[in-house]
Amino acid sequence: MEYKGELIGYTDLAYIKDQRAELVIAIGVSQYRGKGIGFEASRKMMEYGLKEFGINLFHAETNEYNMASRRLLEKLGYKEIGREGQLIQYEYKVENYKKV
């Protein structure tokens, strides 16, 4: 597979406040899903948030039917902390930080 400079997805830190942030990740081009890109981008974004902003608590949420997103968050070390309708809320505490 060859990357040709097209936008395949994004990751972001949203709602940064009081050393907390929400991790947002999307891989919009299906041929790039399942290749580890989202995992690596998320891991790098979390490291950036920790180093540059001192973020020690990350939040994320996904639809209960989005199994790929759920697996990604769990692989990163996020823990499920609640549900609201079809949305599952996750949390990652830096005290649990390990190089993934």
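(the above was protein one; protein two follows)
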Amino acid sequence: MAGQESSFPQDRRPLSHARVLITRSPERSLTLIAALEQAGAEALLLPLIDFERAADQHSLDVACDALAAGAFDWLVVSSATTVHVLADKAAERGMRLSDWLPASTRVAAIGQASRGLLESAGVPVALTPAAAQSAAGLLEVWPAGAGRVLLPQADIAAPRLADGLAASGAAVTVVTAYRTVDYPADAERRLAVEPLGQDTAENGPARPAGAPPSYALLTAEGARDDIAAGRLHAVVAASPSAVRRIGSDLSPLHDCRLIAIGRSTADEAAALGLEVAAVAAEPTPAGIVAAVREALDSPTQPGPPVKDTR
């Protein structure tokens, strides 16, 4: 398989011959594709969701101007896509994100992916949940009476985080940062993924070093055929919206194992009646590869056996 040179001996790669479907866009999947390829898997792509700029740019601009002026004690970042939106807003003002955010405003990130992307852009992160990387996890470690909080998020974000922050005594300003839409987004409104710095996040922008990772791009019909025929061994869902599309477009999954990134994604799958084979402990390439391995390392899985490299 073309791509990066494997760090595993060719005959000991733990996911050798496994075929894994990723349901996000190619530019948001490069680091995960490379990690799966290194582990011996064949990565296939079926982008199901995409992102567009928020319809109400005025409200977002007002909130961002207040943020830059130091009006908030905390900025809460719930996704890597939010980081890209904020970086775009800083760029519109001729500044880098690290210079645009005031030093007096502390930054909290729900997950390590968002934290890594922020830090790669030179933004220090003061708070990230150590356990569950979710709204519930952040609320568990959130300081009481945190003051004024800006929460930019997706248009379809659940109210749990905003409500929990408010219940802690924070004065929360919620603003829609972007829209989640079916892939592909409108070309004029689509949120481009631009490099912010060294790539550390699972859905970060930078292309891995070396040759580009290889992948095949499937249609929904082709993916359904492969699932029915047992030619797809695992499918990765990165968000609740993605798992909803998997349920509507690809089910029944038969023997194809569903891997959820994050507890909220797993909970949404359960609500839809989809069995989750593994939940990625961390939304990073290594964490997702480990979850794929866990999902396939089962005597009931008819796909390629997972090799013990210990």
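Reviewer note on protein two: The first helix runs from residue 30 to 38.
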